[in-house]
Amino acid sequence: MRTTFFDDHDKNITGVAYKNIHIKKTIILYFADKGNTTITELCKELNLSVPKVTTLVLDLIADGLVKDFGKTGSTGGRRPNIYGLAPDSVFFLGVDVKYNHINIGLTDLRKKLIRISKGVPYDLQNSEASLKELCRLILNFIKETGVPKEKILGIGLNMSGRINYLTGYSYNFFHFNEEPLNKVIENELGLKTYLENDSRAMAYGEFNSGAVEDEKNVLFLNLDYGLGMGMMINKEIYYGKSGFSGELGHIPLFNNELICRCGKKGCLETEASGMAMVRMFKESISNGSSSSLKKGPNDEIQMEEIIDAANNDDVLCIELMEKIGYNLGRGIALLINIFNPELIILGGALATTGEYLHLPIKSALNKLSLSLANNDTQIRISSLGEDAGVIGACLLARKRLLEDTL
Cβ(103)–Cβ(118) under 8 Å? Predict the structure, then answer.
């Protein structure tokens, strides 16, 4: 297992041995994506000889990654053997970090979600203690699964904000070590760690296992306390020059005096996000509005409480959802006019509010986007919901471990 997946980073491995490792990774990816097959079919796919492919498959069997499932069910002639991934051979861990909880899950090589824990309480703070607590929760989950740690080949870890997945640095949270964050976590957990922006990971999960059908160019909008976006261009994640693409929430769209988290004024996030909705709720209560939530202007209020109240016919919360939805629609209209995408997927907590949010979005799009572009852009709700980030993190860890050629 270690030879197949890790030795290509050994500078002493070159030539045929190096090439064989990458062919093995291609075989694993083929089994993972296409399912079980014969040596003959693998030879056609890889354009390699039968002896060569047979030798590499036998190596993978010895590694415990591939299994011989016996003869095919064909009639006539000599029946070939079928090969595929060995059940429970290796796994990938996905961790989706939110502001007040984490979602964490485990997938196998075939992208099957084996176990998931959602809503695990966690207070995200930019401190050493918060980072230690995150690592503790991850280790607890691994222990609870009963899966041997050596069978987990990698961790995909999502966080909000500016993250450079190539260098492993996070610039919004836990940026207090000279060493990149992914290396810090690797040292704590003893497992290969891949860092990613949460919206991009959610986009990747949705693209590969969710609402996407045949579309190649897709925008995923993460509508939560903040606003994020993951872009899939020609089936690949688009990062931009510095790796910080998708900062939807910081489009300077409004002429207001509200200071955004980024330090600037007038950002879309100040008028069209979960944090904006919490602020608007408190302002409305201060101005005499009533709500079934029974909250005072100085009481703590969570975005999730407002969403639940709106879904239970609270008039004030419904009005706030409509206002947030229309403001969001203004930002989405810009995206349609600029990108003319095939599909926009709405995900995150705010996307769970149904027509209260979707109708004002559609109203804004009809008024503000170019009709020729708008007519060709579909809008769908995330089909993975809360699972999108975990699945995306697992799949990205799998992809990077198998396709990494650095």
Answer: yes
